[in-house]
Amino acid sequence: MFEDIIGFGNSDPVLFIDILIRKFYIIYADSKLKAKKIKYNPLFEKLYTPLFDNLKVEFHCKLIDIVLNLIDGCEISEVSRKLYKKIGLRVTLTQSETDQLLEWTPYFKKFIFKTPFSMIPKTLCKTPTELLDAMINKIRLIYRSDKAMERLLKQILEVATEENYGKEMLNQLSELVRTSEVSATNKKILEFPPSIDDILAEKSATKRSADDDVDDENENKRRKNELGGKKVYLLEQHDDWRPTPFGMSV
Question: Is 231 left (phi over 0), alpha (psi -120 to 50) or beta?
Fold first, then answer.
């Protein structure tokens, strides 16, 4: 059974990926996310990585392409739409459903760069630097975040070796990591300090809060003075009042 699934995944990776995603094998449906009050279940990775580890690198590359198309909201063809309906696959996915696929991206990126370049089909790329450039562009399109970019570059650097990818690509990758770190540092340095208006507004809000506390305290004191220490009763007092059980006539 396991070998049959691997054979199917390697022979028709696109259909296999569609089934995994649109039948909600590797992500949760939106309704289940809301019921569990979560955004993603990391147990998916523990459950399915043993299977994915046995699939060819083409599968992993194709899955990243499909994730990118889903994140970008690319329209599916009419043929695919009819096929999905026929075999019971979800035609459209919500943002919360596609967002879960972002959690899978680091695993697939690391798998690709752990694979010796000699095993990467030349139809995907001809040189290690070409593969790196293609993957970097996809990372940027998927995440659009400098922090996520830096984190994924470091993860690739951890698994890619000179033996598998050559010194040129590793030097390029190291330079990209260094540049992303410098860019993040410069952004922090170049962040504008609060303006005078912001400072004055903050001080004004703090002063108003303090003034309100003082006003409340003064109002409480005024009320106590008006009452002169007398007890306040909700109902009018009667000198001849006596307790009467509820439901009995007086």
Answer: beta
**Where in the sequence is the domain holding 135, given as residue range(s)?**
116-210
Range 93-103 average pLDDT: 92
CA 127 distance to own-chain centroid: 32
- With a CB cutoff of 8 Å and minimum separation 6, the contacts of 221 are none
Task: Please report the pLDDT score of residue 60 as a whole number.
Answer: 94
Distances (CA, A) of 22 to 34, 51, 90, 94, 140: 18, 18, 5, 11, 24
pLDDT band at 182 (very low <50, low <70, confident <90, very high): low
Q: Where are the beta strands (DSSP E) in 127-209?
A: none
* 3-class state of residue 83 by DSSP: helix
Q: How far is CA 202 from CA 111, 192, 205, 207, in A?
A: 50, 17, 5, 9
Q: Which of 18-27, 64-73, 189-198 has the lowest mean pLDDT?
A: 189-198
Locate 220 and state its tokens: 């409480």
Is the pLDDT score of 86 beyond 80?
A: yes
Is residue 230 in some structural domain? no
Least confident among 126-130, 138-142, 181-185: 181-185
**Packing angle of the helix pair 13-22, 57-72 (nearest 10 deg):** 50
| 130 within a domain of the structure (yes/no) | yes
Residues 104 and 4 in one domain: yes
- Residue 213's pLDDT is what? 60
The residue count of the chain comes to 250
Max Cα-Cα span within the chain: 104
